[in-house]
Amino acid sequence: MTVPERRGLTRRDYLRAVVAVGGASAISACLDERGEVDVPAGTNDPGSLPARQHAWNEFLETDDDGNVRPPEHHVLVALSLADDPAGENDGDSLEEATETVEESLRTLERAYEWSNDGLLFTVGYTPSYFDRFDGKLPETVDLPAPEALTDREDPAFDEFDALLHLASDHPEVVLRAEEALFGELETVNGEPVETDLTGVFDRLEERRRTGFVGPGLPAEHTDVDGVPDSVPEEAPFFMGFRSGFQESQATEDRVTIRDGPFASGATQQLSSLDIQLDVWFEQESHAQRVMKTFSPDHDEDQVGDIGEALEISNGLTDEQIDDTESDARNRGVVGHAQKAARAREDGEPIILRRDFNTVDGDTPGTHFLSLQREMDDFLSVREAMTGADLDVGIIQNNGILGYIFVGRRGNYLLPPRSHRALPTPSPD
Ligand code: HEM
After folding, report:
1. Pfam families annotated for this entry (predicted)?
2. Residue 246, exposed/middle/buried by CB under 10 A (0-12, 13-18, 19+)?
3. Which position among 8, 86, 280, 340 has the lowest Cβ density within 10 Å, counted as fewest Cβ atoms?
4. Total domain count for the chain?
5. Which structural domain, as residue segments, surrounds residue 357?
């Protein structure tokens, strides 16, 4: 891919397109557009960073209502082990490669503050990665291979080894972090790059994914086929509403593995979805979109144009959640959030959603990334969200189910920071 022509694109759309391209030419395009932006440096004391790689919330900014505000730019870098340092009789090379990975990641932590304004990242490992070792993952880690979860989907699976998730408000930060990790930069935010991942990991270019989230960003993509002009101006997500309210998100504690060698880790699920946005906006009224997103009891005043009237909650009552089945039968429509909330435990959500919009493949979609303690928690939520049990008549009335299409799925273990570099299934 080459950097697109600036002409005709808004600045934010151009920068998004540049992140999607990646590499040195993308970094210079960012600099031409924005100049060099001051980005806060990180820390020389790795012990000052949290044990959890996924400890992002307390470092993220919040919106006016106090909900966590995710970074604007995201890159998912798919990694495959170059040689197999974990192969037979290769203990020494595994040790060396582990040090290389750890030191490369620490370079990023020294370079950038752990925040929206700096860089947040995680590295996760697939079940295929762990398959090469003789031992099995401990029982405290629930990490099955990904699978198709409904009869409407036939996804491809992430069967490479690892996935790096880079996130920042600054496009050049995610781009530079990626390039620094792959030996393309001598310094990153003033920090010398002495170690990088080349030789340990290969980047899988064709599996690289990118995305963006934030008020106004989706509406800037109406140049992409399948993104209608009717996407609301201020919406942070393509389907037109705010998402990720504090009260409908699991806490980081809830999604953290508690015991065993991977305590302080989490599991990560990633579904890459296409969205049929033109039908969603052109055949449905705002009132219908409100009902299908939230519940048939929600009205336009309660929600507002893009969910601005909701503060830290999607407004679902326990009664509305309990009524999902009868709403399907009697009213012929159920809400996406209403259905999914059936999987709450003791009234609390069990997955932490960190999804973002994408136009990878030049089509609108979502990289639906969720964190949970056990993959089984995701499966329960996805089952509730699918709502195959609901007698709703036509699929278009089953929340947003009829508008989303899963193309890929991957399951990952995010080890605690202490074991994030090439973990064996039973690290010390
Ligand atoms: C294009 C894809 C999707 C979009 C645009 C979307 C959008 C939304 C919105 C607007 C809400 C209500 C606001 C909130 O509660 O934060 C919501 C809630 C939720 N969604 Fe999604 N969603 C998508 C996919 C999924 C998928 C695939 C799952 C699960 C597997 C899921 C699970 C949930 C859950 C668990 C809630 C909160 C329910 C609760 O309050 O307990 N969503 N989503």
Report:
1. DUF7405 (PF24152)
2. middle
3. 8
4. 1
5. 1-428
